[in-house]
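[audit] Reproducing an earlier prediction to check determinism. Same input, same settings, fresh worker. If the tokens differ from the archived copy the diff job will pick it up downstream; this log only records the rerun itself.
[audit] input (296 residues):
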Amino acid sequence: LPRSQEFPPLQLGEEVGEAAVAVASRPTSALRVATWNMWFDSLEAPLRPAALLRELLLHAPDVACLQEVVPGFATAVRGCRALRELYDISPQDVGSYGTMMLVRRDLRPSFFSAQLPSSMGRMLLWADCAARLPGLRVVTTHLESLNSAALRRAQLRAAAPVLRARPSSVLCGDFNFDDTKTWGDWQRTAPAVPPERLENHVLREVLPDFVDAWRAVHPEDPGYTFDGETNPICVPDGKERMRYDRLMVSAVRGSRLRASGAALLGTEDISADGVKPSDHNGLLVDMAVAPGGGEF
């Protein structure tokens, strides 16, 4: 499907109903956030995006952050009455492809966005929550693709004050770099840079008070979210195995959030020929919420 083509209406009443039960039973001492790059490619569209949404609903996140959302799919999501009964949906324009958030309605979210320094139209999108967990801020982005480390650094610097404005904040999305290697290292006789010079160190430099949730929960698991070995239909290079997708949790003084669980989504085939919901795996993170009065 071209990115501008319309998607058929989403029939998700049963899935939303089951997710609503799960969401309603979740205590305020827990928060579940998912992030997933949907892949704008036309392969098996609209089958893939619909399957991706169904898997998300199976896990019933409080907040779902999506990247590479194409306009037709954004329209289909916003037009789905069942989804709107459970989630408020960010109204911002996705452009030719962009970011979208679904936030459970009883968090009473307000949505905001800001342009990032970018040659690809990348932006920050965030939700500020006024109820249930008042003061919670969840931010999502899709950092610059390809060989763009300097721009990604600038984008993270632009995100930092938005994140620091709330003690209990989360940043998630497709960061487009790994924490153990540089893109293309698998094609080289030696790594492009030594470990101490990996791009991943920009997170410690720019966001020193934020914790990488996957690494906190699974210190030894590579957690590949882009894996040509296990997803060969969607990822053309079978040796490209990277953890591009992240969720960072504020650990600043006053934050009430702590990563307590993390899992990959979209690891199962959705068709007989081995297609998966996206070229990326989704990332689902559970957080423990410390007790406290008033705003986060």
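[audit] rerun output stored. Observation attached for the diff report: The mean pLDDT is 96.
[audit] end
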